[in-house]
Amino acid sequence: MAGVLATAEGTESLNTRVSSKLMLFRNFEVKNASSLLVAELVVAAAEAVVVKDKSDGKKKKKATRLRNVEINDKAAIREGDEEEQAQRVFVSGNGSDSEGSSNIRFAQPFQSISPAVDLQKLILAHNEIEVLREDLKNLACLVVLNVSHNKLSQLPAAIGELTAMKSLDVSFNSISELPEQISSATSLVKLDCSSNRLKELPESLGRCLDLSDLKASNNQISSLHEDMANCSKLSKLDVEGNKLTALSERQIASWTMLTELNASKNMLVDLPQNIGSLSRLIRLDLHQNKISSIPPSIGGCSSLVEFYLGMNSLSTLPAEIGDLSRLGTLDLRSNQLKEYPVGGCKLKLSYLDLSNNSLTGLHPELGNMTTLKKLVLVGNPLRTLRSTLVNGPTAALLKYLRSRLSNGEETSASTPSKENVIASAARMSISTKELSLEGLNLTAVPSQVWESGEITKVNLSKNSIEELPAQLSSSASLQTLILSRNKIKDWPGEILKSLPALVCLKLDNNLLKQISLDGFQTVSGLQILDLSGNPASLGTGVHPKFSFLPQLQELYLSRVQLSEVPEDILNLSNLLILDLSQNLLQSIPKDIKKMTSLKHLDISNNNISSLPPELGLLEPTLEVLRLDGNPLRRDLAFFWQHVQLSYVASDSQPQTRQQITECKGRGLMKAPKDSANSLSPRQRGSIATKDEEA
Predict the structure, then answer these.
(1) DSSP string of 433-465?
(2) Of 48, 126, 322, 606, which is the most buried if we count CB atoms within 10 A?
(3) DSSP string computed for 185-211
(4) Cβ pair 18, 84 in contact under 8 A
(5) What's the CA gap between 96 and 365, in Å, rounded?
(6) Which helix (H) or strand (E) segment is 641 a member of?
(7) In the structure, what pLDDT confidence band is assigned to residue 543 with cuts at 50, 70 and 90?
(8) How far apart are CA 530 and CA 484, in angstroms?
(9) Mean pLDDT across the chain, nearest whole number?
């Protein structure tokens, strides 16, 4: 049924139509309502109102508990049907599905925001708001605040008193500085202050220790305070379009969780020498700066997929760029390069832009880059190549370059001996402190591992190693040990306890027997542990104690035949990634709510038929949830209603990802079709995706 809350201009004020009962709500959205005061909206919408039914004029007796509200310039408010207990009140503009529309008017301003308002999400984007009031602090339950695209010139100090707030969006305003009190918002996870007039970020922001996503692009920031290094959970940083001249080595050393860094369109002249410590970095955008060289440590960015260096002042590239084995996109346009290094020809690139440089020729080895789909060479003084090749199909150019390789230089050339490969890797490790002996079919750990000085990372994956030698205990500086895909049977506790600096251990896909109850006690400093593909490692019923791993941030337990989630895993307060896929799980415990730092949860391909409502309490920290391959039968409407995640669809499309977005319109979101098979047509119709908003 539909009812009109506010009538046309000139009628009685909204105040006279407020009943005595208070009606709380959780999600409030305002769009294009520039004539309305924010304080009026918040208080008025939080009060219980008399709703007149349009068909018979009767008054409803039951107050509605508001959850999702959207207000436009010309709007009518109506209730949901009684079958859904009228839990959704929404306002839509002309052209919407409302039965009537009229101007919402307020006869007089409200003097304060009621502390009783139980708001969790407040979206006031795309208005003409000039001031936020100090009594905003009364919204003690607020988790998400979006005041983007307004006319704000400052934020109230009270913003720091919103201690429950996890997401703050103040982008596209005219703010010249953020209040130092923002550090008191200690729960803050996401901050977007892009497109303002900021000259610096407050030093106190470094005390927001849970901050993982920071966007400060298109401002006038010239430097980042050193205390930002304290934000060690930072995974995404966007400072594009500022005036930065340098990035701090201390900050880079602390930001080991970074997966995306965008510092393009600044004034950077060089990069920190320890840039290679960002081993989780997937996307690095540094285009349009003044960078003249890339440090050799760049080879340590082993996860890098996209690297943008266009429009800088590079004249050479380090040979170590060839170590970026996952790199797919490399942008080097508009630099001063005279050659593309031979070492870079072993990359498996799909896109390479070398346009507008000073290249006079290309190494024939470039022809071996068979994965290359697009090679851009325009704007170079290439004298040894015909213009038809340079401007023609990439495949034809690669074929021509391969034809220039002399016998023995093609990909079929004889492989260097195993001994030579080990010796070469050992020499390189002297400068890089990293030793990679992957895929050499080794049956034992070579002595070079512990004889190569202060090695910090050793990769022995894809070999046939059965045990670790006692001499490995002397590698006191070792931080990362990768032993994936070997034949190790026993947990190497005695060796591991002599490696005090070890923070990353990968033993996936071995033949591990059951680990003893106190097995993890020898590696209490671990931050990353991968035991996937060892079905006997955790045993049945009695598991090794994960409580010995208080600093753990990533845990991978795929394919270990788990029938239940070990209870002490739920107490790992620093855990960011948990992979429990391809096990025998039938349920997820309610105490999952205690994992408040969790960003990525993979429970795909189990026997889970329902999800606990407590899982929704992990919003907005939880970013990725994989559910495919489970017989989910329960009505999940409550779940999509509250959770904002990257969702992976079900069995029929195991790799399809859809972005679940915030509640709008009717206040529900649409789950991917395959996951909503158990929902009724009416329930499925009340859900909306990012691509099909209500």
Answers:
(1) SEEE-TTS--SS--THHHHSSS--EEE--SS--
(2) 606
(3) -TT--EEE--SS--S---GGGGG-TT-
(4) no
(5) 60
(6) helix 637-642
(7) confident
(8) 9
(9) 76
Amino acid at 128: E
How far apart CA 576 and CA 554 sit, in angstroms, is 6
CB atoms within 10 A of CB 681: 7
What is the Cα–Cα distance from 493 to 502, expressed in whole angstroms?
12
Closest among 72, 64, 74 to 7, alpha carbons compared: 74
Q: Which of 75, 175, 72, 199 is nearest to 125 (CA)?
A: 72
- DSSP bridge pairs for 442: none
What is the C-alpha end-to-end distance of the chain, expressed in Å? 19
Which amino acid appears at position 164 of this protein? A
Structure tokens at 557: 């337990």
How far CA 155 is from CA of 41, 139, 176, in Å, comes to 19, 15, 10
Q: What's residue 406's pLDDT? A: 53
pTM tops 0.85: no
Strand, coil or helix: what is 270? coil
Which structure tokens are listed for 641? 């209603």
Tell me the residue type at 26.
R
pLDDT tens string 445-478: 988 888 766 889 999 999 999 999 988 888 889 9
- Residue 114 banded pLDDT, cuts 50, 70, 90: low
- Predicted confidence (pLDDT) per residue in 381-399, tens digit: 887 788 888 888 988 888 8
Angstrom CA distances, 594 to 89, 317, 479, 598, 606, stand at: 32, 47, 29, 9, 22
Lookup: tokens for 668: 């529900």
Rounded-to-10 torsion of CA 63, 69, 72, 73: 40
CA distance linking residue 136 with residue 124, whole number of Å: 13
Higher pLDDT, 114 or 376: 376
Q: Hey, what domains does the chain have and what are their CATH numbers?
A: 1-119 (no CATH), 137-239 (3.80.10.10), 244-253+265-412 (3.80.10.10), 592-694 (no CATH)
For 289-302, the DSSP string reads: S------GGGGG-T
Residues 9-23 pLDDT 10s: 222 333 323 322 233
Which residue spans within 112-271 are E strands per DSSP? 121-123, 144-146, 167-169, 190-192, 213-215, 236-238, 260-262
Per mean pLDDT, which range of 33-47, 236-250, 422-436 is the poorest?
Answer: 33-47
Which of 221-225, 337-341, 404-408, 614-618 is predicted with the least confidence, judged by mean pLDDT? 404-408
Sign, CA dihedral 235-240-243-249, equals positive
Distance of alpha carbon 61 from its chain centroid, rounded? 46
What is the token pair recorded at 627? Answer: 């559910």
Look-up of token digits 């329930």: 683
Give CA–CA dist 332/349, Å, rounded.
13
Rounded to whole angstroms, the Cα distance separating 651 from 62 reads 43
Look at 269 and 46; give whichever has higher pLDDT: 269
Are 76 and 69 spatial neighbours (Cβ–Cβ below 8 Å)? no
One-letter amino acid identity for 591? D
Per-residue tokens: 4? 């009109």
Phi first, then psi: give them for residue 215, nearest 5 degrees. -120, 115
Instruction: For residue range 281-325, list pLDDT tens digits in order.
Output: 999 999 999 999 999 999 999 999 999 999 999 999 998 899 999
DSSP 301-349: -TT--EEE--SS--S---GGGGG-TT--EEE--SS--S---GGGGGS--
